[in-house]
C-alpha cells in the first residue's frame, strides 16, 4: 500500500505550484515550455508535471509524465471509449496513484521554487472531473497553489467570445477557490490592451457590445455587470509564449497570488484556532454538564441554577433588561429554574397561570358573597 506524503520543510520554503489551465489550443503547452526555459535560465529549474495523456510531442522534459503511466489509446480500446472518454479515464486512472506523485514532489520540494503543471488540451476534462478537483485540492492542501488561466487573445477579440471565456474563467475560480492569474497569450499576434480596457472600463465594453445587434447582446450586457466583481479579484498579464514577452510580469503576478494564498491560509488558521479556543472554554465552563447554546453556538450562561431552589441574584439582574414586562418585585422568579433560553417562555406561562388563578378566585369570591 502507498504511504502518505512525508512532511516537508517550513511553509516559506515551499515551492509555488502553478496549474496551467485553458481552452484547447490556447497555448498551455507552449507557455509551459516558455516558463520552463525562463526558470532554467534563472538557475531555478522547476519541477514539471504533464497531465495531458494525449499530447504527441512535449516541447519540454517533464519530471512526471502521465503518458509514462497510462496509454490513453489503449484505454480507449480496452474500455471501448472515444478520445475524450479515453483521456478522462486515463486521468482518472492516474489520479488513483496521485499519492505517489505527491511523495516524489515532497522529496524534491525543499530544493524547488516552482512546480509547473500542464493540463489536458480539452479544458473540461480537467476542470469538470473529480480527478482535476482531487489533484488541485491535494496540491493546494500542502503547497501555495495558483491557477494560470491561459486565453487565446486573437480568438477573444469579439465581445461574445470574450464574455464566454470570462464566464468560464469565473466558474473555475469559484470551483477551485485558488488565487487566479489571467494570462492573455499570443500577444505577438494581437495585443491584450483591448481586454484590459474592457475589464476596467465598463462603458467601453458596452460600446463594443453596441455594434452587436443579436439577442445575445442584451444578455451580455447584464452579464458584464456581474463580472465586474469577478474582475476585481484578478491579476491580468499579457504574454507571448512564442517570443517570451511578459514572462517576468507573469512571475510577478504569481508572487502576488502566492501572498494572497498565504494570507488566506493564515486567516483560515486563525479562525480554526479561535473556534478551538472557544470550544475549549465552553468545555471548561460546562465541566461535562448539560449546557444550552445560543444562536451563535456559544454557551449561554454558565451560572444558571439547574435545580432552581435558590434564584441566582446576579443572574436575575442580568436578565432584567430583556424582560421589560416582567414584574421585578415578585419574590420568586418562575424563570430562574429554567435554562436562560427557556426563561421568558416559563415566565409568560407563569403569568398566564397567575391570571387564571386570579380570575378563578374572583369568581369564587363573588359566588360565596351571593350565597351569603
Ligand atoms: N503566435 C503564437 N502562437 C502560439 C503562442 N502560444 C502557442 N501558440 C500556438 O498555438 C497552438 C496551440 O498551442 P499548444 O501549446 O499546443 O496549446 P494547448 O492545447 O493549450 O496546449 C500551437 O500551434 C502553438 O504554436 C504564442 O504566444 N504566439
Ligand atoms: Mg497542450
TrEMBL record:
Record carries keyword Repressor: no
**InterPro entries tied to this protein:** Gpn, Gpn1/Npa3/XAB1, P-loop_NTPase
Start-end of Basic and acidic residues biased regions: 263-272
Gene Ontology CC annotation, any one: cytoplasm
Going by the record, the broad EC class of this enzyme is: hydrolase
Point to the regions of Polar residues compositional bias: 347-372
Q: Does the keyword ATP-binding apply?
A: no
Pfam name, any one: ATP_bind_1
State the family it belongs to: Belongs to the GPN-loop GTPase family.
Under the subunit heading, UniProt states: Binds to RNA polymerase II.
Q: What is this protein called?
A: GPN-loop GTPase
Q: Which organism is it from?
A: Jimgerdemannia flammicorona
Amino acid at each position: 500500500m502507498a504511504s502518505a506524503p512525508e512532511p516537508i520543510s517550513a511553509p516559506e520554503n515551499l515551492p509555488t505550484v502553478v496549474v496551467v489551465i485553458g481552452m484547447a489550443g490556447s497555448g498551455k503547452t507552449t507557455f509551459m515550455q516558455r516558463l520552463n526555459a525562463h526558470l532554467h535560465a534563472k538557475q531555478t529549474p522547476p519541477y514539471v508535471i504533464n497531465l495531458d495523456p494525449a499530447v504527441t510531442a512535449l516541447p519540454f522534459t517533464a519530471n512526471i509524465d502521465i503518458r509514462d503511466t497510462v496509454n490513453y489509446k489503449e484505454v480507449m480500446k480496452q474500455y471501448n471509449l472515444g478520445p475524450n472518454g479515453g483521456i478522462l479515464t486515463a486521468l482518472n486512472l492516474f489520479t488513483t496513484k496521485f499519492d505517489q506523485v505527491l511523495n516524489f514532489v515532497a522529496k524534491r520540494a525543499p530544493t524547488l521554487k516552482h512546480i509547473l503543471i500542464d493540463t489536458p488540451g480539452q479544458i473540461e476534462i480537467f476542470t469538470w472531473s473529480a480527478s482535476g478537483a482531487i489533484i488541485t485540492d491535494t496540491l493546494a492542501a500542502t503547497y501555495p497553489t495558483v491557477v494560470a488561466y491561459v486565453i487565446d487573445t486573437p480568438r477573444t477579440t469579439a465581445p461574445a467570445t470574450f464574455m464566454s471565456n470570462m464566464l468560464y474563467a469565473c466558474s473555475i475560480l469559484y470551483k477551485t477557490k485558488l488565487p487566479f492569474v489571467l494570462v492573455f497569450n499570443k500577444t505577438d499576434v494581437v495585443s491584450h490592451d483591448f481586454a484590459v480596457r474592457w475589464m476596467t472600463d465598463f462603458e467601453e465594453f458596452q460600446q463594443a457590445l453596441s455594434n452587436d445587434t443579436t439577442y445575445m447582446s442584451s444578455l451580455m450586457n447584464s452579464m458584464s455587470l456581474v463580472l465586474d466583481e469577478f474582475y476585481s479579484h484578478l491579476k491580468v498579464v499579457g504574454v507571448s509564449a512564442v517570443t517570451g514577452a511578459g514572462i517576468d510580469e507573469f512571475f510577478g503576478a504569481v508572487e502576488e497570488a502566492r501572498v494572497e494564498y498565504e494570507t488566506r491560509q493564515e486567516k483560515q488558521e486563525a479562525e480554526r484556532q479561535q473556534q478551538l479556543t472557544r470550544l475549549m472554554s465552553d468545555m471548561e465552563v460546562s465541566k461535562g454538564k448539560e449546557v444550552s447554546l445560543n444562536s451563535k453556538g456559544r454557551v449561554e450562561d454558565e451560572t444558571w441554577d439547574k435545580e432552581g431552589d435558590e434564584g441566582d441574584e446576579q443572574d436575575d439582574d442580568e436578565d432584567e433588561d430583556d424582560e421589560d414586562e416582567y414584574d421585578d418585585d415578585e419574590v420568586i422568579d418562575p424563570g430562574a429554574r429554567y435554562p436562560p433560553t427557556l426563561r421568558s417562555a416559563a415566565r409568560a406561562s407563569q403569568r398566564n397561570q397567575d391570571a387564571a388563578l386570579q380570575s378563578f378566585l374572583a369568581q369564587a369570591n363573588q359566588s360565596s358573597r351571593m350565597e351569603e
